[in-house]
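Thread amino acids onto this structure.
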C-alpha cells in the first residue's frame, strides 16, 4: 500500500532501485495515482534536500550535482535540481556562510533568487508535466543523488561552514586579482573572435595570440610570486565534460592543461575532471579548452562532409578528436616554449627555476589532495583515417606564431 511513509522510505533508502529507468517508470505510475499533485505533503522535497546534504558530504559541489542530474536522470531534472539547490542554499544561509567558490557556483546556476519552499510541488506546477512523468523525474533524481559516489572534498560542505564567512575589503579568497581579470578578458575576446571567424588563418592568429597571453601571464605571475609561499596560489577547478566522446574530449582538456602546468584528475564514468594549478592558469585553461571544443566540432563537421560514406561515423569521430587532441598538445607545447624563451630573453632572467618551483607546488597539491591517484592511458585502437584527419585539423588550427610546422 502506498502512503507517505512508504514514499519517504522509497526516496531515502531505495535509491539504488531508482537508477533503473524501468523500475522508476513503474513506481512513478503508482505514485501518480496516489498523489497526482506530486508531493502535496512535501515528503519528496524533504527527502531530496536530505539527499543533497549527503552528496555535499561526499565531495560533490553545486555545479557537479547539476551535471549529474543531466547525465544520470534527464534534462527535465535540471530545473528541479537547481530549485532544490536554491532551497538548500536559503536553508543553510549559503550566501553569507559558504566559501566564495561555492557561492560563485550558486550564482552561475541562478539559484540565489527567492523560490517556493514546496520545491517539488512548485516545480511540478511550473513545468506542467503529467503526474507520472513528474514522479519519474523525481525518482530518477533521488536515485542519482542517493548513489553519487564519494569523491575528494575540495570545498568544505555546509556542515563545516562557520556562522558567517569572514568578509574582506579586497579580492575574495581564491578569486582573480584585477590584473588577472583584464588578461582573461583579453584572452576571452581573442577566442570569441577565433570561434566566429570564417577564415582559418585569422582563427589561427587569434588563438595563437591567446596562448601567447596565457604564457606571458603565467610567467609574470611566477616572477611576482618569487619569494612567496608558492602553495598559496594553487587552487582547484572542476570541469564537466559532456557526452558524446567524453574520453576523447578529456584528452583535449589534458593536452591544454599539461601545456599550462595544470594537472588533471579524471573521475571515470562521472564526466568530471578536476584541475589543479595556479588560479589564473585554471581560468585560462578552461577558456582555451572551451574554445577548442567549438573549433574541433567545426573542423569535424567539415571533415565528415568531405568524407561522407564512412562505415562507422562514431569510430571516425572518436579518432578524429583523439588525433586533434594529440597534435594540439604538441603545438601548444611548442608555442609555450617559444613564448617562455622570448619572455626570458626580454627580462634577462633564467625562468626555469621559477617555473620549476611553481610546478612543484602544483604537484605537491595534487599529491595531498589525491594520494591514491594513478596515471592511466587509453589502449583502445582508433580509426587511422579519423586520427590523421584530426591531426590535419589541428595543424590548420595552429596555436603558435606563424612558423613552419613541427617536425
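Threaded sequence (407 positions):
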Amino acid at each position: 500500500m502506498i502512503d507517505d511513509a512508504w514514499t519517504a522510505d522509497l526516496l531515502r533508502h531505495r535509491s539504488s532501485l531508482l537508477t533503473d529507468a524501468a523500475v522508476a517508470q513503474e513506481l512513478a505510475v503508482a505514485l501518480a495515482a496516489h498523489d497526482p499533485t506530486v508531493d502535496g505533503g512535501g515528503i519528496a522535497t524533504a527527502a531530496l534536500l536530505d539527499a543533497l546534504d549527503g552528496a555535499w558530504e561526499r565531495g560533490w559541489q553545486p555545479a557537479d550535482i547539476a551535471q549529474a542530474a543531466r547525465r544520470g536522470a534527464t534534462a527535465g531534472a535540471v530545473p528541479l535540481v537547481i530549485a532544490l539547490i536554491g532551497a538548500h542554499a536559503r536553508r543553510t544561509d549559503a550566501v553569507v556562510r559558504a566559501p566564495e567558490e561555492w557561492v560563485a557556483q550558486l550564482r552561475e546556476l541562478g539559484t540565489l533568487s527567492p523560490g517556493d519552499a514546496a520545491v517539488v510541488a512548485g516545480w511540478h506546477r511550473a513545468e506542467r508535466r503529467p503526474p507520472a512523468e513528474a514522479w519519474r523525474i523525481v525518482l530518477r533524481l533521488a536515485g542519482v543523488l542517493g548513489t553519487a559516489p564519494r569523491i575528494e572534498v575540495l570545498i568544505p560542505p555546509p556542515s563545516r561552514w562557520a556562522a558567517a564567512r569572514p568578509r574582506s575589503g579586497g579580492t575574495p579568497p581564491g578569486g582573480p586579482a584585477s590584473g588577472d581579470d583584464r588578461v582573461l578578458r583579453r584572452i576571452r575576446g581573442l577566442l570569441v573572435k577565433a570561434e566566429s571567424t570564417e577564415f582559418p588563418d585569422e582563427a589561427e592568429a587569434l588563438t595563437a595570440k591567446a596562448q601567447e597571453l596565457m604564457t606571458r601571464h603565467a610567467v609574470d605571475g611566477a616572477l611576482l610570486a618569487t619569494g612567496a609561499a608558492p602553495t598559496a596560489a594553487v587552487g582547484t577547478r572542476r570541469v564537466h565534460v559532456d557526452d558524446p566522446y567524453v574520453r576523447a574530449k578529456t584528452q583535449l582538456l589534458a593536452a591544454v592543461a599539461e601545456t599550462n602546468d595544470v594537472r588533471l584528475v579524471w573521475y571515470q564514468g562521472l564526466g568530471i575532471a578536476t584541475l589543479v594549478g595556479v588560479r589564473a592558469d585554471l581560468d585560462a585553461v578552461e577558456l582555451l579548452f572551451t574554445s577548442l571544443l567549438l573549433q574541433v566540432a567545426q573542423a569535424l563537421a567539415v571533415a565528415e562532409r568531405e568524407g561522407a560514406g564512412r562505415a562507422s561515423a562514431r569510430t571516425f569521430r572518436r579518432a578524429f578528436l583523439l588525433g586533434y587532441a594529440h597534435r594540439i598538445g604538441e603545438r601548444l607545447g611548442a608555442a609555450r616554449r617559444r613564448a617562455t624563451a622570448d619572455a626570458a630573453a626580454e627580462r634577462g632572467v633564467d625562468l626555469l627555476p621559477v617555473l620549476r618551483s611553481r610546478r612543484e607546488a602544483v604537484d605537491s597539491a595534487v599529491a595531498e589532495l589525491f594520494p591514491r591517484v594513478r596515471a592511466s592511458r587509453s589502449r583502445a585502437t582508433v580509426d587511422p583515417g579519423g586520427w590523421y584527419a584530426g591531426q590535419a585539423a589541428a595543424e590548420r588550427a595552429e596555436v603558435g606564431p606563424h612558423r613552419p610546422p613541427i617536425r
